[in-house]
Amino acid sequence: MSSELEDKIVSSLVDERLPCLVAFDVAGEVKVGRRQVGDAANRLKIRVVDCQLGCFDSKKATHDDLVGKQISRAVIDTVESCLVGGSLPCAVAFKVAETLKVTPREVGDAATRQKIKISRCQLGCFP
Question: Of 2, 81, 98, 112, which has the fewest beta carbons less than 10 angstroms from its beta carbon?
């Protein structure tokens, strides 16, 4: 399985990097857990980029891209109600997005606006 997974990752690269969304797709296509894709990318020394929640975006760290951006009160309230140990796990953020029918990035932006840390990346990129 490892060779099939690694081959799929390598064939799915965009500019020699693995976008988060593509990594999720690879997991589904090869029928492995998302963490396995992240672990394989690490073994191959391939960088995961373009986090769907916006966690790897340098602008996100400074909050510049959120100035004046409208974020739904429902998203903010739901994010705040779903915290685990003071942070929002990645998988929970995706469930919130699915439940509220918004993009994962909107959930990530709501967390950022509230100064809530996203934790437990499903690909293993951060704890």
Answer: 81
- pLDDT per residue as tens digits for the range 2-37: 799 999 999 999 999 999 999 999 999 999 999 999
Q: Which two tokens stand for residue 76?
A: 């903010």
In sequence order, the β-bridge partners of residue 48 are 18
Angle, in degrees to the nearest 10, between helices 73-81 and 104-113: 80
* Domain extent listing, the chain: 2-49, 58-119
In this structure, the number of other CB atoms found within 10 A of the CB of residue 13 comes to 15
Assess whether pLDDT exceeds 80 at residue 67: no
Amino acid residing at 85? G
From residue 95, alpha-carbon distances to 89, 90, 106, 118 in Å are 10, 9, 12, 13
